[in-house]
Amino acid sequence: MSLFFIILLKVFPIYINVVLGYLSSKLLNVQRESVATLLIYILGPIVVFSATLSVKIDFAVAFLPIFLFVFCSILAFASLALFKNSWNDPTGNILAFSAGTGNTGYFGIPLAIIFFPPHLADIYIFTVLASLLYESTSGFYVTAKGNFTVGQSLKKMARLPILYAFILGIIFNIAGFEIPEVISSYTGQFKGAYGILGMMMLGMGLIGLKNSEGNFDIKFISIAYFMKFVFWPLAILGFIYLDKTFFTFLNEDLYKVLFLFAIVPLAGNTVTLAVLLNAKPEKASLAVFLSTVVSVLTIPLYIFLYGGF
Questions:
Q1: Where are the beta strands (DSSP E) in the chain?
Q2: What is the rounded CA–CA span in Å between residue 37 and residue 282?
Q3: Out of 130, 187, 193, 215, which could bridge 69 as a Cys pair, Cβ 3.0 to 4.6 Å?
Q4: What is the mean pLDDT of residues 192-207?
Q5: Which of 19, 32, 45 is nearest to 272 (CA)?
């Protein structure tokens, strides 16, 4: 019980940000499209670039985002193939996107800071690049494919600066470049802004839920929650078992990073991309919001069953 209340107190500000996002759109007429654009085209690239330079990359650390990017992409394309014809709108595309990722940034980074020592929290943040890369490439593609042709989707994907920020960060890291301390303290502030605005976007996406029909899609929510809260943890635990038994690529600390990556709720960027692509943002917002509420119970439970961090 003590672990549950510790987590509840630590994540409480996240829920305040959701409420503030809702109120800012409801009362102040803040446009969620503008916030979504800021997240994807300005804050995201800065966070990605600076985080890429913050860790010492070795084989094991580099393996994490590569493995998770491939795993996320496989899940997304498999889900799209299975469910793309289950709805007469882009819901199947949003489901495919959400199946391949989770709220590893807005929600996961604060949790990593709570549970992990600083060096391991930095590795987790670096691993989150797998989600950002997935969301900017294959995840964006399976979402955009609901409203655009293949060629249009690829062109939109190629214009996302997060992809280039990641590549540039890797190049500079390998070259030994370090951001000056004065600059790094400045770029570090963007991590907080990214998390705050990301969760506010979730609240902004709730506008219109009462006036729209079909937002509580039990089929969509059931499949999405099964993938996130059942399949993801079991699949990662299965990989951890295989690595411990046969491969021994990783160590206990990196197993913890992998497991935390697997137990976060649905991705907040599900709403961000749904807004930008006009792909049922209200339905996505409700599903993401409810998953965030559910995770207040599931995260302490999974960490307890894992043996604690």
A1: none
A2: 17
A3: 130
A4: 81
A5: 32
Pick from 146, 130, 44, 32: nearest CA to 86: 146
Which amino acid, 141?
Y
Question: Across 216-274, where does the E strand assignment appear?
Answer: none
132 within 8 A of 166, measured Cβ to Cβ: yes
What residues have CB less than 8 Å from 170, skipping those under 6 apart? 52
| Dihedral (CA of 185, 7, 264, 68) sign | positive
Helix axes of 2-28 and 181-204: crossing angle, nearest 10 degrees: 70
Neighbours of 82 (CB within 10 A): 14
Between the CA of residue 260 and those of 18, 33, 226, what are the distances in Å?
22, 30, 17
Tell which residue, 45, 105, 29, has the closest CA to residue 269.
105
3-class SS at 193? Answer: helix
Quick check: 127 and 101 in contact, CB under 8 A? no
Cα angle value 284/286/287 (rounded, 5°) = 65
pTM of the predicted protein model? 0.83
Stretch 22-28: mean pLDDT:
91
245-256 average pLDDT score: 93
Looking at residue 211, its pLDDT comes to: 46
Is the pLDDT assigned to residue 196 strictly greater than 90? Answer: no
* CA 241 vs CA 49, 235, 244, 279: distances in Å: 32, 10, 5, 38
CA 123 to CA 113: how far, in whole Å? 11
| Structural fold of domain 2-306 | Na+/H+ antiporter like fold (1.20.1530)
Exposed (0-12), middle (13-18) or buried (19+): which is 197, by Cβ within 10 Å? buried
Higher-scoring residue by pLDDT: 62, 110: 62
Average pLDDT score over residue span 14-23? 87
Average pLDDT in the chain: 85
What pLDDT, in 10s, does the model give residues 232-241?
999 999 999 9
